[in-house]
Every structure is written in C-alpha cells, then in structure tokens.
Amino acid sequence: MSLHDTGPRRLWIKNPLAILAEDAGGGLVVAGTRIVERVPAGARPAAPVHETFDAAGHVVIPGLVNTHHHFFQTLTRAHPLAINKPLFPWLQALYTVWDKLTPEAFRLATRLAYAELLLSGCTTAGDHHYLFPKGLEASVDIQVEEARALGIRAFVTRGSMSLSVRDGGLPPDALVQDDDTILSDSERVLSLFHDPAPGAMVQIGLAPCSPFNVTKRLMRESAALAERHDCRLHTHLGETLDEDAYCLAAFGQRPVDYLEEVGWMSPRAWLAHGIHFNDDEVARLGRAGVGVCHCPTSNMTLASGQCRTCELEAAGSPVGLGVDGSASNDNSNLMEGVRHALMLNRLTYGAEKVTHLDALRWATEGSAACLGRSDIGRLSEGREADLALFTLDELRFSGAHDPLAALVLCGAHRADRVMVAGQWRVVDGHPVGLDTRRLREEHGRLARHLFGSF
After folding, report:
1. pLDDT tens digit sequence for 269-301
2. What is the CATH number of the domain that holds 413?
3. Of 370, 392, 413, which residue constitutes the final position of a domain?
4. Helices and strands in the chain: count of H runs, count of E runs
5. Which regions span the lipid bilayer (predicted)?
6. Do 125 and 112 lie in a common domain?
7. pTM of the full structure
8. Predicted local confidence at residue 169, as pLDDT
C-alpha cells in the first residue's frame, strides 16, 4: 500500500503515555470512522499513514458511553426546592417548576449537556427524556439536531409519562400525555431517526418513565413497537424502597414481577439504577440478559441505595454507567462518575473486589452492551474510532505512577482531546465549533428566568 492509494486517510495516534487496550503500546491507527490497527510498543504501523498525532503526553481510553441522563435538568441544578430530599419528594418539588420548560430552554439544556459529556471524555451520549409539556412535542427532534451539530454519538430515548396525580401517579396533569399520543410519536421518531446499523451516529430507544407514572398498556405496546423497529427499551426500576412499596400497593407485585408481566424481561431492555433487587430477582434479570445502568453519583445524592453491580454482572446482566439527571447529580461528567463508581463499589464490596479497571469497563464495554452495541466501547480493530485522551499535567496528578489508575484515583474530569467516529470533537480541552462562554451565559440566563430565585 502507498499513500497514493484511494481510501480514507490513515491517522497514527502514536506512542501514548498509556492506553486502555492490549498490544497497543505504540498507539492506534484510525482510518475513516474506525480503528484499523493496534501498534505494539516500539513498533510502527504495518502500512504507511497520512498523519501522525504524538500522544506521548496523553492517556488514551475508549470513549465513555453514558447510558442514563435527563438533559433538561441542567436548568434546575441545586434548586432550593429540591436539595436535601429523597427521590419522591425531590420529584414532587421539581414537577412544580419543570412545566415552565420552553423549546429554547430545552435546546440550550441539551447543547450544554452534550458539551459537558464530551468534555468529560464521553463519545456516546444517552438521554432519557420523558417531559413533554405543551410546546415540547418535538423534543426528540431537538436532541437529534443538537447531537449532529456537535458530532457526538447519540442514543436518545423517547420517554413518556401517562399517569398523572389524578390517575394515582406522581406528575401533574400538564406533564403527561395519553398512551396513544405517546405511541404515535414513538413510531414517528423511530421512523425518522433510528439507525440500527453498526456505526450509527443516532439511535432511538423507547423509555416509559417508571412504574409510578405510566400504564401497563404503554409498557406492553412499547415492547411490541421495539420488536418491530429493532430498538432498545429503557425505564427506571428498583431505584428506591418507595418504588417497591408503590408497586406492591398499586399492582400487588414487586418491580421485577411487574417488568416480567409487561414483557420486558429480555436483552432488549436496560434499567436505570436497579438498586433494590433481591437475590432471586438478580438471578432472573441475569438469565434474561436485562442490562442495568449504575448511577453512583445520583444514588449517593438522593441516598437511594447501592446498586448490586457485582452480583448483577455475575448473573449475566450487562452493567453500564450513567451520570443521571443534572438535578440529581448535579453535573454531566461521566469521568467523575467512573471515580464515584469505584469508590461506592469499594465501600460496598471491599478494596480488592472492585478496581479502577472495573469502573472504566462499566463506562465503556458495559455501557455499550446495555445499548446493544458491539461496535463501540473498546479499542480494537474494526471498532468505531471513539477515543478520549487525557493529560496528566494538573497538580492533582503530580506524583502519580500508574497513568490509567491516576485517571480514576486522582480525579480526572476533563479530556484534552476527544475523537468520535474518527473526527476530533474536542481539541485542547474545548469542543470544536462551540462557544462555551456564550452557551454558559445564555443557558444560565434562561435557567434564572424560568426556574430560579437566584
């Protein structure tokens, strides 16, 4: 092969300080959207390259994959009505302000969340948007447009709430839609945006919000729709003991029994939080291949409990990571979530049972498995070229000896470079083509105007 041959340009990411990949001490070669070669330490690429990026000062990891978030909540972080509350009172407090959300505010909230995630090394951004007050019917369209503009890979779930307070649910009437409206729009956005092919930049999932704000009919018909369109299913489940009590009172069954009754016990589904499962339920979820998104920061903020990550994974459930909503986190930093996952799970299982490599695996391969994707989450030939590159030049890293461990243990939180599908989307710590100062000013102004008392 010569450089005059036709084909995509080949980029050698050369001699990284450290890399989370086997037999790649000399770096990676990227061509088009994919990784085409791992270069052993001390070696050169097997074929000529067009460009070289010297990564001697960078730690290279697979792009992080976020599997649970609520972008709109960036507008109500640390809100005085909601701080220092557990989940149900927290939700009831914020429902009273979220009905003020406008399309302009939602667009800025989405843009800001994508930018935060990118800067933390996240290359695939999942969101669970379930809030559709009047005027926000095109929310999924907005999220897809903003992802395409920034060049981030997106997994947008069309969430929903159909049970209001008057029906025995938690949300007010203004925030719910009827089942038929939800199912019709779900079909619309799947037809418009869902790409099931490997390498897809946009995928759509269906995500009825939780047992306490949707009907069983909506759960069942969403599962049927997912089968027809070959898409994933997502919902909150097992997050709090209050949810267990609600399911027992309303349905006479625990949340996993509910999930089985509505036809969601399959590898197509992944659950947010998944904390309060007993041994039998963990085994059943594992046998069915149901994934679980661990949200350590939110779980600690709301004091919801500790996900049984190790037992779930051992049983057969894919385990991924998510930042969760920016009003229960209160940020969109997935690398910080990796550190929190390590700390919380060591507290749960012991210092020798969970390593920094486990936490990084959950945020990459584990999250990719939750989304049903085998084309991202790992640095190897044929995978998408989604990479996060971190420098260790801040004071927090001085004296660190193991670069990969230092990312997690010393608290890395901002990537220097991020590549998505072979394109640099963060360069020198800044999202390409985005004025972050202006975004901060506009987003903050709308947050104060619509929701604030600051």
Report:
1. 999 999 999 999 999 999 999 999 999 999 999
2. 2.30.40.10
3. 370
4. 15, 18
5. none
6. yes
7. 0.96
8. 81
